Structures are given as C-alpha cells and as structure tokens.
UniProtKB/TrEMBL annotation:
Gene3D superfamilies: Rhodanese-like domain
SMART domains registered for this protein in UniProt: RHOD
Compositional bias per record (Basic and acidic residues), positions renumbered to this chain: 170-179
Record InterPro entries: Rhodanese-like_dom (IPR001763), Rhodanese-like_dom_sf (IPR036873), STR17/STR18/HARC1-like (IPR044684)
Transmembrane segments: none
PROSITE patterns: RHODANESE_3
Pfam families: Rhodanese
CDD domains, per database record: RHOD
Protein name in the entry: Rhodanese domain-containing protein
PANTHER family associated with the record: THIOSULFATE SULFURTRANSFERASE 18
Length: 196
C-alpha cells in the first residue's frame, strides 16, 4: 500500500498491485482505466475487454499539466462501485489518479505498479488503435480491394485454374461497368527480368 497526499491535505490509501495481479483482475472482469495521453494510448495499450482512456495529464509546450476535467470524465463513464485498475506508462500518474478517484468516493480502484512498461516487458497482450481523424479520410480517393481472376499463364486455355491477385482500384461514383469489375490484360513471366 502507498499513500499520496491529496490537494486538501488529507491522505487516501492507494492500493498498488503488480501487473500479474492486474492481469488476473482484468481477465476476471475488472475495467482498466488508462490515464496516459491519447498519443501514448494509440501507440499501444493493455488488452482489456473494458478499457477507458482518460488522460490524467496533458502535454503542453510548458510541460505536463493536470487534466482539469479528469474526475468529471471518469465519473461520466464509471460508477463509484465499479471495479477498476488504473494504469499509466510507469505507475506514477496512475498513483495520483487513483488517489484522486478515492478522494471523490470511488471504492474499488487499484493502481497498477510498473504501468504499461511492466505489462509489455512481461509479454502480456497489447492492442494498438487505428488513428482516425474525422474529415481527413474523406479527402483521399476511395479505394477498395477487388479480386481480378487472371489466367495462370496467358497462353493457356481458359480451363486453367486462375490465380487471384488483390489489386487496389479506385471506386468511381458512377461506374461504367455493370458489375463494377475491371478487365486487365496481364502477362505473367516465369522468370521476370530484373533491371539493374
């Protein structure tokens, strides 16, 4: 157990558990509150069924500053009786975040000692998020993968088994073909020449 003095001067008892205990609790249904920045979270995070990313601190040009909405954001997603493991990169931010949550009445929160670094260092499962910035994907041309049947050898008869090669194609708003497929003449060489 550790203790952290909170802003009002009283102390909250913070229970710090190691990453092995944290994994067992997460596997048994505990939620995982990742208090790292969004950027850190997207690069990789603990694999958990119930996971929330609410930064405890933000990176600014002047350094790290505490997220003034942290407690409000957590309270909007979690109840005071929810079973939660709180983690960060190394266990420091999560220690302070856990103390703050205890101060406002959360009863079943534990700090994960060692944080994400200890989790990864022990080969526990992680996930990475795909980054989607609203409005940015629409600016790129729409593409999808189509499978175009290609004869195994252009000189052989059509009875020959076909190779299926995925080819990126631009999907037009008003396709001219009825079925949307594009016929591409392809010649496969057995020993293609390599240019120097």
């Amino acid at each position: 157990m550790g203790s952290v003095e909170n802003c009002s001067g009283s102390e909250s008892e913070v229970v710090t558990i190691d990453f092995h205990q944290a994994k067992n609790l997460i596997d048994s249904g505990y939620g995982y509150l990742d208090v790292r920045t969004v950027e850190e979270y997207r690069k990789g995070h603990v694999s958990a069924e119930k996971i929330f990313n609410i930064p405890y601190m933000f990176n600014t040009p002047a350094g790290r500053v505490k997220n003034p909405e942290f407690l409000k954001e957590v309270s909007s997603l979690c109840n005071e009786d929810d079973l939660l493991i709180v983690g960060c990169q190394s266990g420091v931010r999560s220690l302070y975040a856990t103390a703050d949550l205890l101060t406002i009445g959360f009863k079943n929160v534990s700090n994960m000692g060692g944080g994400y670094l200890a989790w990864v260092g022990n080969g526990f499962p992680v996930k990475m998020e795909e980054i989607h910035v609203p409005g940015k994907l629409e600016e790129k041309p729409k593409q999808e993968m189509k499978v175009i049947p290609v004869p195994a050898n252009a000189e052989e008869k059509p009875k020959q088994e076909n190779l299926e090669i995925p080819v990126p194609v631009k999907v037009e708003e008003n396709p001219k073909q009825e079925n949307g497929e594009i016929a591409v003449p392809v010649t496969l060489e057995e020993n293609p020449k390599q240019e120097p």
